[in-house]
Amino acid sequence: MNDIETMVFAGVALPLREKFPGIMVSGEYTPSPASFPAVTVAEIDNSVVRRMATAGKIENASMLTYEVNIYTNRSGYKKLDAKEIMLAVDECLSGMGFVRTMCNPVPNLQDSSIYRLTARYEGYDYPEINGDDVNHRIYTN
Hints:
Strands 1, 2, 3, 4, 5 and 6 form a 6-stranded mixed beta sheet that branches. This protein is an alpha+beta fold and 141 residues long. Helix 1 (5-19) crosses helix 2. It contains 2 helices and 6 strands, in the order H-E-E-E-H-E-E-E. It starts with a helix and ends with a strand. The chain has one domain: 2-Layer Sandwich (Alpha-Beta Plaits).
C-alpha cells in the first residue's frame, strides 16, 4: 500500500500551526474537539488504481481521498474564521496536487455553538522509485 498520510498531514498541520497559533490539528476525526479552532485531516480512502497495475506489481498508483473538518466557535466570527482556515488548508492540499471535490458547512448537532466545515480532496499518488528514494507525485487525473 502506498502510504503518504503522515507526509500529507505534516504538509497541512505545520503551515496551519504557524499561521494560526494555538490551533489544534489532528490526524483523526473527532466529533467534539478539546479546543478551538480545530482541524482534522484524515485519509478516508486509499485504493489501487487498477488501470496502472502490471503483472509485476499490482499497486503502481493509488487513489487517495482526504477529509478535512474545521471547527470554530468564536462568537460572531465562527464562519469567517472557518473560511480563513479553509483557505489555508486549500492552499496546502492543492499545492501538493490534490483537488477539492467538496466543501460544505455541516450542522454540528452535538453543539450548535460550533461552526463546522467539511471538505474532501482527491488525488492519484504515482510513486517514483529511484534506488532507495521514493518521490510521491500527486496527480488529479
